[in-house]
Amino acid sequence: MANLPSLRDLSLAELKQVTADLGLPAYRASQIAGWVHRKGVASFAEMTSLPRDVREMLSRRFRAGGLNVAGKKVSRDGSTVKYLLELADGQTVESVLMRYRYGYSACLSTQVGCRMGCRICASGLEGLVRNLTAGEIIDQIWAMQRDSGCRVGRVVLMGSGEPLDNYAATIKFLTLVNAPYGLNISHRHVTLSTCGIVPRVYDLMELRLSITLAVSLHAPNNELRSRLVPVNKAYPLEELLPACRAYAETTGRRVSFEYALLAGVNDSQQHAGELAGILRGIHCHINLLPVNPVPERGWRRSAARNVRAFRAMLERAGYPVTVRRELGLDIDAACGQLRRRVNARGRE
Ligand code: SF4
Model pTM? Predict the structure, then answer.
């Protein structure tokens, strides 16, 4: 079962090819797409408009999709639920459902683990295990919607994994999530976060999608950034920032620069001034992140007054700045923490 491909990975065009290959009438492809992508079913038994022999024919070649909820933590205020979701091969990923004033937002993983090794996050601590398929990324939305009864309206690719290191599956996910026969989530409500794989930023730019590109910057100079975000050694700021500028100019979408504030590391007024200098002329927005503690990394959160002063300096320089709402400090909210704790308990 686990090694069969998932129907959730297939677009309507690909389902049409499947039904043609199986000698089924073309309308069956739309019916299957309806069950898999619009209703998000997790079993063939739920596809009640398909005759039993068609379901059996499909089940010999495909899985229906669907992820098990292996763990769940709800924040004290109920606004954030962190899920540990089990994939068909037993691997697990984290996904987060967040309630905002405007509705529900899902933070999704694109890989099991990550090989980028950013020093601010727990996902990279054990390296990359494997890429997710597009269907497995979509399935995280369905699993959380089924469990919570909520409808996801916004998506951020900011969980474990570097989306641009799993480029083909990420692009296919962007197609599927927006498909009118499926979840139909507008690309304007999708944010893709990258640590800065410059060639893929240019590839993405050429697609001219209306998604938001979020770049994990975290430092205003190469010396510090190479320590916090090691991919900076391959793609330093003098390559990354022109790519961001080109992205914004080509797509007309402002780039969001993510900056995790770490006490005594990157949160001084000098750092704020340097940051204001290097982003000059880029159509952008700066998102400051009071960092969630990662004990394995040893970071401390910036004091509230430092966050305020950092923000004020950037605003005086003319940048739109937000400070990300602090979600789920009580639920191991830093990316990768829940999975690590559960895996560690499993090894005990
Ligand atoms: S921040 Fe993102 S890209 Fe960097 S190690 Fe964590 S999951 Fe990977």
Answer: 0.93
